[in-house]
Design a protein that fits this description.
This protein is of the alpha+beta class and 691 residues long. Residues 1-25 form the signal peptide.
Length: 691
Amino acid sequence: MLKQFLINASLVLAGFSLTWSYLPAELSAQQPDTNWIDKELEQARGGLDPDRLPSLTDTEAAVLDAMGACRAYLDRRATEANAAAWLDYLQLEPLADAIHDDESIAQRGHAAVELESRLRDVHPGLELKSMTSLRGAVQRYIAALRYSDPERGLASARKQLDALAEIFSSAPAAPDTGETDTGETDTGETDADETDTPATQDGGSPIPSARRPHELSPEEVAQVDQLLSGLADANQAVSLIDKIQSYYRHGNIRGWVDGRSISEAISRPVNNPSAVNDCILGTRMIGQARVDGNVVAQLLPSDNDVRLLIRMNGVFSTTARGYHKPITLDTTGSGRVYAARQIAITEKSIVLGETVSTAELSTQINRINHPLRIVRRIASEQAAEQRPLAEAISREKLRTQVHAQFDAQTAEMAGRSFPSLDSTIDPWLNRLDFPALTRSIGSTTDTVYARASLQRPHGLAAPAEPPALASLWSSTPGGVLPGTYLAAVQVHQSIVDNSIAQLLAGQTFTPDRILQLAQTLDIELPNRESLAESTGSDVHQDTDSDEMIDEQEQEDYEVDLANFRPVFVEADNQELRVGLRGTRFAQGGRELERTLEVSAIYRPVRGEDGSLWLSREDDVRLSFPGSRRLTISQTAIKTNMQQSFNKLFPKELLHRDFSFPADAKIAALAGRVVRISAIDLTDGWISIAVR
C-alpha cells in the first residue's frame, strides 16, 4: 500500500509538476539579536501560574468518558468478536482500575503510558475518531499526572526554562545522554526536584550572550524541542514557545520536477488531415485540408497552483474544387492557426481558462473550368470581387473549427482524477499520531514545486530554507540545473524528531518488529544479497567474514529504545549520521542494562560511470555514554552487539535504479528508468535528485 502511494505521489507530482531550485529561496526567518531570549525567559518566569497547570480531576474524568465512548462505539459499530478483539488489544481495565482505586501517581502514570503506546501503531482502525479521541485524552491525562503537584510542577517548569537558558547561552554545557527534564515526575521519568542547576538571584541562569537558533547542534535542537513540549504540557510560557518556534517554521520537505519534463509529458505533434465540404457565398467547396504543427506547454509563475499555458501552433493547407453552376474552380489555400489556453492545476482538480484562437488564410484560384472563354473571364472578375469576403468567411470558419477542437481536447484534462494524497496518508498519520502534513504547490517558468511540513504542535521544523539545487553535490559539475534532472526531493532532519522519534520513544526494538512494520507498510527491506550487489565497482563487494554467517544461526536481539531521540538522523558536511539510542540490550539470554548509542556514517560516493550512492563506513559506531567502564562480561556482549548492528545498517543506500510502472498514467514516464544524479547532505537537509 505504501509503495503504491509513493508511486502515485510521484506520478501526481510529476503530472502537475513539482519544481526546482531556481525558485527564489525564501529568506530564513530573521535571526534575533544576541540577547534575544533574555526578555522572553524573564517574561516566562514571571508568568508561571499554578492555575494554568492541567487539572488532574478534569483530565481523569475526560479519560473515563473517552473510554466509555470507545466501548460504546465498538458495541455499536463492530461485531461482537471484533469488539472483543479490540478491547483485548487496548486493555482499558488497568488504567480504569488504577483511577477508580485511586492508586499512586506512578501506578496511574504507568498504566496511562502503556495504553497511550498501544493507541499509536499501524493497525487499521486506530485512525477512527473514537480511538484518536481516547489517545488525546490519555496524553492530556499523562501531562496532568506529571504536574499534579502545583509546587513541584512550577519548580519543574522553572528548571526547564533554566535548561533553555543554558542551551542558548554562549558556552553551553556538554550534553551527557541528551536527557532533559520535561516535567515528568512520578510516572517513571526524572523528577523535577532531582536536578541542581545554577541560577541567578531571580532564579534564572546567567546569559552573557545568547546564541542564535541556527547555531545550535541537532542534539541541542532536540533538547529545546523536548523542553518546549514539557512547558506546553504544563500550559506555561506560551509566548516563549511561540517565539522559539518562529525560528524553526520553515517547511521540512521540498519537491521539484523539472519544467522540461513537464513540457515533454504534454507536448505532441499535430498532424490532422480532414475533408472539406462547405458552401461559401453559394459555391460548394469539396476537397482536402490539413493542419501540421505542435502542441507545447509552458510553465507560468504561480504560488498557489501549477499554472500552464497550452499552445497549439500549426500550418494550414487545403486543396479543393468549387462548384458554382455553370463553372467549377480549382483552388489552393494556406495559412497559420493558433490556439492557447491557461490551465491551473491544484491537488484536487484542474481549472480551465478561456481558449483564445487566431487564424490566417490566403487562397488562390488556380483554374476556372468552363468551355467558353467569356464565361471564364466573367467568373474570374466576380471571384476577384468576392475574394476578400470569401477569405474572411473561410478564415473565421477555420478559426472556429480549430478553436472548438482545441477547446474540447484540453477540456478532457479537466475530467482527469488524481490520487487523493489525503485519503492515502491521513489514516496512517492518525494511526501513528503523526502531525498533519501541511503543503502547497506552485510553479515557476522552469519548474513545478511542492512545499510541505510535518511538524508537531510544539515541535521544531527547519531553521532555514534548503540549499539551492544548483549548489548540490551531483554527478556533473555545476550542480542540478534546469533540463539536467527529472525530479528532486529535499528533506530536513527535523522530520524524524517530529514523527518517528516520537513513535518509537520507550519502545522495544527487535528485528521481528522491524519486519512486521515493513510488511504492514509494504516496504521492501534490503536483504544481505541485495546489499552486497555491485553497481560495477569493487567498492560494492562485501567479503567480511561476519557476513557469511547464516542468518538462521544469528540470535535475535532486542533493544529498549530511549525516550529522548530514540532514533536520529543528522546531515551536514556531506555526511549522513543515522542511529538509535537505547537503555537495554539483550541477546541469547545475555543482557546489558546501560545507556547505549549506535550510529552509522554514510557519505556520497561517485562511481566511474557517474552513478551516485551512499556508502557506509566499515563499522557502525557503538558507544556507552557515561563514566562507568564496561565489565568483562559486558565487553563480550558489546562484540555481539557490534555484529548485530553492522547487519542492521546496510552497507549502501540509494545504489539501485528505479523504474516507473509500464502502465503509469503519464505516458512520458511509463517504463522510464531513473537513477540518482545528485546527493547532498548540508545544514540538516538531505537532497536527492534523479534523472
